[in-house]
Structure formats: structure tokens, C-alpha cells
From TrEMBL:
Organism: Mesembrinibis cayennensis
Name the record gives this protein: KIF17 protein
The organism's place on the tree of life at top rank: Eukaryota
Keywords: Coiled coil
Residue ranges the record marks as coiled coil: 57-123
Gene: Kif17_0
Length: 162
């Protein structure tokens, strides 16, 4: 009877090497899996709602306290996100105001230059190619490299009568 007891441990054969290897593999796999779960929990944000679901509580009060703390943290995050949104909106509004001011200034400048051209056009000689502004606009080309307009040279067209 004592010899049988030494051979059998926990209902399994004590000297069976295959069984021992199987237990070692299972234990190693369980340890690896446990380490993976611990690493995953550490990587996940403690503030996530999944964190609350992973805990086992001894009492309802303990669960309420844990969920209350989580709620407070989430409310802090929400308030921080709301202030960030307000900051971004105010920054956007300031940029919008600045752009609108720039557009208004450029429109005023354009109107000034248009009025100047209208006044000066009547002073240009009729035999000059600059007397027709629409023709000059059609012949002008935008130069991408230099960032400016290439305007045709002024030419005086002399007409001679026979």
C-alpha cells in the first residue's frame, strides 16, 4: 500500500515523465497567459470602463466607490476635452476674423487700383496698346516661378496716312 502511495500523487502517476512534461507545459502556458493579461491590463488605460468590469467587489459599497471614482475621472477628462474644444473654437474664430479683415483690406485695395486705372486710362494715348485694359488683361500671364504677372510691354502703334 505504501509503495502504491509513492507511485500515485493526486490521482496521477508520480513517475510518469510524459505527464510531468504535460503539467510543465500547461503551467508554462498558464504563466505566459497570465503575464500577457497583466501586460494588457497595464497597457490599457485604467480609466476605461473595461477596468471596472474586470474587478471583483466584496460589497456593493466598494463597487459604488470604485465606479464613483471612475465617474469622477471621466468627468475630469470630459471637462478637459470641453475646454480644449472651446480653446480651438476661439482660436479658429480669431483666425477667421483675421482672414475676413485681410479680405476686406484687399478688396479696398483692389477697388482703389481699379479706380486709379479708370482715371489713368483716359490719359493714355489712343495709339498705345495700354489704352485697352481688357486686351492687356487677356495678354497678361501669371508667372509661377517669380510669383508675378508678366504684362506686355507698352507699344505705340503709329499709323501713317498715305
Amino acid at each position: 500500500l505504501q509503495m502504491l502511495e509513492r507511485q500515485v500523487v493526486g490521482g496521477e502517476q508520480a513517475k510518469n515523465k510524459d505527464l510531468k512534461e504535460k503539467h510543465k507545459r500547461q503551467k508554462k502556458y498558464a504563466d505566459e497567459r497570465r503575464m500577457q493579461l497583466v501586460a494588457a491590463l497595464q497597457q490599457s488605460n485604467e480609466d476605461s470602463s473595461d477596468w471596472v468590469l474586470l474587478n471583483v467587489y466584496d460589497s456593493i459599497q466598494e463597487e459604488v466607490r470604485a465606479k464613483s471614482k471612475l465617474l469622477e475621472r471621466m468627468q475630469k477628462k470630459l471637462r478637459a476635452a470641453e475646454t480644449e474644444i472651446k480653446d480651438l473654437q476661439s482660436e479658429f474664430e480669431l483666425e477667421k476674423i483675421d482672414y475676413l479683415g485681410t479680405i476686406r483690406r484687399l478688396e479696398r485695395d483692389l477697388l482703389l487700383f481699379q479706380q486709379l486705372l479708370d482715371q489713368v486710362q483716359s490719359l493714355v494715348r489712343r495709339d498705345c496698346n495700354y489704352s485697352n485694359l481688357e486686351k492687356i488683361k487677356r495678354e497678361s500671364v501669371w508667372d509661377e516661378e517669380n510669383g508675378c504677372w508678366k504684362i506686355p510691354e507698352p507699344v505705340i502703334q503709329k499709323t501713317r496716312l498715305p
